[in-house]
Predict the 3D structure of the following.
Amino acid sequence: MPTVLRTTWPLLLGVLLLMVGNGMQGTLLGIRGKIEGISTTQMSVVMSAYFGGFLLGSRVVPGMIRSVGHVRVFAALGSLISSVLILYAAAPDWVAWTAMRLVIGFCFSGVYITAESWLNASTSNESRGRALSAYMIMQMLGIITAQLLMNVADPAGYLLFVIPSVLVSLAFLPILLSPQPAPQFATLKLMSFGKLFRASPLGCVGMFLMGGVFSAIFGMASVWGAVKGLPVRDISAFVAAIYVGGLLLQYPVGWLSDRGDRRAVVLALAILGTAVAAITVAAQPGIWGLLVAAALIGGVANPVYSLLLAHTNDFLDSSDMAAASAGLMFINGVGAISGPLITGWLMDRMGPDGFWIYIGVLLALLAGYTFYRRTRRSSPAQDQSFAVIAPSATPVAVEAALETAGSDEGDKPA
């Protein structure tokens, strides 16, 4: 790992700062929206726009990179991000915020694609797995650090919008000044959704449901906290706990899934998440109970995303894995767009409990469908080991992670 850090630290530092900036703006908007008198339904539209922009960027940005190169695309998107982060405070209107969140999602998608391409190209086959693990850890630590910074100033002021703008601007310095040359960007193969569903119905349905769960957590947690009347300190701690749980449980869940039927692990996690949501609604715990619930929900949502990718790839030849993963990520993105919208609608009608009810219902549907699929097909041979993948990763990082996992365990024969 020390060797990996010596060669990739500029990229990893840049990613850390990017995630701090992104994590701050997501939480800050949820809190500031309440201060500005923006309704829960309107805020759900604002939060949903990020995932729409992210999905659009994943389709458009690769073509931009091939046309004008990594450096120009990277610099242009970075400038847009910094500008929008400042403009949030200048135009506290939900329609303007929706347009800005769409731009932010598009830009961050492109920035991640570029950074992950560089990381992939700057590491050898032997060190790529460790580099990707460090990359995922940096993403999580960045979002957790962002929640700590939420407490340095009043969210009704301007400073908390300035800080992520500055951090994002600084994030591009180590990446653009890295001695590693800009990599070639290869076009990913595509797989039809029909073929993908035939390969793994659970992968497709599960990814759609988890897109809704993840976007509700990432997009609406701060809105939920503001509606519930929690102070900034508690809201930031709640959001941080989600990612701490995800960080701590990824590897134990992966170890367990490589030693049995992955569907059994998905089923157990989905049941756990459903129970956590139901208990939280029924018990109405204080802040410490909410932090435990947040950590458990985060510990469910992040590993299940990676498990569904690994489960789908268990049914595929190695040559089809990248194309299938890109398709699954698109399905996940479609589900993510609806997450904040439905959560906001439920919260308007049920109050803050609508947040937990939505997450609990989706996880209950996942548990039921996973149980059903276990009765329809036997467990496959698991030649592809579990790869730790964040829900915010782009197809570039996913493909590299799958290649690394395959080289560790041996590729599936054609």
